[in-house]
Specification:
Layout: H1 4-11, H2 15-23, H3 30-43, H4 49-56, E1 61-65, H5 72-87, E2 91-95, H6 101-113, E3 118-121, H7 128-136, E4 141-144, E5 159-163, H8 166-178, E6 184-188, H9 194-210, E7 219-221, H10 226-237, E8 245-248, H11 251-263, E9 273-277, E10 286-287, E11 291-294, H12 297-313, E12 321-324, E13 327-329, E14 369-370
Parallel strand pairs: 1-2, 1-3, 3-4, 4-5, 5-12, 6-7, 6-8, 8-9, 9-11
Antiparallel strand pairs: 10-14, 11-13
């Protein structure tokens, strides 16, 4: 098996230069760098990662703890982290904390014991033990998707990367109000998550902007899961004065809401309008296609990894929170005329101008159905 010394002899450089090229530890002249890379390829040299980690105290691995990996949104985040890690020569160790504080602490401890260089974590609704552990062991960490508030008298302890949640939710509510809706309900996520709190805040801001009072009966938590979305939607439809429009706060709860609406024979948007936070791959397969807020999942994942790299390079720099913009993807479930699918994920905060007649309270009509060509593919 060829060694680093063999590469150095073939390239006509020192072993130290080969090390700098392979580890990006010092700038090297382009023609020298290319000579080293050519020698590596010609000889079939493979770096000894274990030996290098013993010398540098770095394993070039990162722990990723994200709940609901099967959720398409978190799958996109994972893809973003993985692509950025691969580009920089890092491997990923992945764990699912299941949104459970006790399990979350356990998997983070296991990742730490594997000597990862740092961690990227989507914290649970109660991350106190997690934060205490990471702080006690001084683990370089970036919080992902969900943020943790710092006490007012302290600067943030950890870097954080997430999407903006409040303003896009307000945008959905404002749009529904412009279409004539007065009773707009929210299927909110798991209580205690920062994303849930921010989307409720956005919902209230949207109501206030439209001049509507806040009615707590129109906000029901769906626990960020499909089953919870079903329960919350059923509860809202059972009100004496049910909503005429529904905002679901994540993609899993959207699926739950759709099941209930179909089961009750309600047509979207004729009987009840629907807008959702989180665009997903099937959102345009329904009839009507679903109006949604699209989060930049892959960009969030990639940015989180790059922020972690910056933290590893400069451990003492102040922590920061990075928020990325979402996009309003306008389709037809809100009650507007359908539009061609945009070439990208939509325009940030694009506000459609179409109008609709003021809606009535939901009454049974034709059930919401997937488009004809897709029937049988949606549960």
């Amino acid at each position: 098996m060829p060694t680093m010394a063999d590469v150095a002899r073939s390239a006509g450089v020192s072993v130290a230069t080969v090390s700098h090229v392979l580890n990006d530890t010092r700038p090297v002249l382009p023609h020298t760098r290319q000579a080293v890379l050519d020698a590596v390829e010609e000889l079939g040299y493979t770096p000894n990662t274990l030996a290098r980690s013993l010398v540098t105290s770095r394993t070039r691995s990162v722990g990723l703890a994200v709940s609901a990996i099967s959720n398409p949104y978190f799958t996109e985040i994972l893809q973003g982290v993985e692509a950025a890690a691969l580009e920089h020569g890092y491997s990923l160790l992945i764990a699912d904390p299941h949104d459970d504080p006790e399990h979350e602490l356990k998997v983070v401890q296991l990742l730490h014991e594997r000597r990862v260089d740092g961690m990227i974590v989507a914290p649970s609704a109660d991350p106190r033990e997690l934060v205490a552990y990471l702080t006690r062991h001084d683990v370089p960490t970036v919080f992902l998707d969900r943020v943790i508030d710092s006490p007012e008298d302290r600067t943030p302890r950890f870097d954080q990367v997430c999407a903006d949640s409040a303003e896009p939710t307000a945008q959905l509510v404002t749009h529904l109000a412009e279409l004539g809706h007065r009773r707009i309900a929210l299927v909110a996520g798991r209580a205690g998550l920062s994303t849930t709190g921010e989307r409720i805040t956005g919902y209230r801001h949207g109501l206030a902007a439209a001049g509507f009072p806040y009615d707590e009966r129109l906000v029901v938590h769906g626990d960020s899961e499909s089953d919870g979305g079903e329960r919350a939607t059923a509860a809202l439809l059972s009100l004496a004065a049910p909503p005429t429009a529904l905002v679901t706060a994540n993609n899993a709860m959207t699926i739950g809401a759709l099941r209930v609406l179909r089961g009750r024979g309600l047509s979207v948007p004729d009987d009840i309008a629907l807008c959702c936070f989180d665009d997903f791959a099937w959102a345009d397969l329904f009839t009507p296609r679903l109006t949604a807020i699209a989060q930049p999942g892959k960009e969030i994942g990639a940015r989180a990894f790059h922020v972690l790299l910056e933290r590893l390079a400069t451990p003492d720099r102040p922590a920061r929170t990075v928020r990325l913009a979402c996009a309003f993807v306008h389709r037809a479930s809100c009650g507007c005329a359908d539009e061609p699918e945009p070439s990208a994920q939509g325009s940030p905060f694009l506000r459609p101008s179409q109008s609709a007649q003021p809606p009535q309270s939901p009454q049974p009509s034709q059930p919401l159905q997937p488009s004809q060509s897709e029937r049988g593919t949606v549960a």
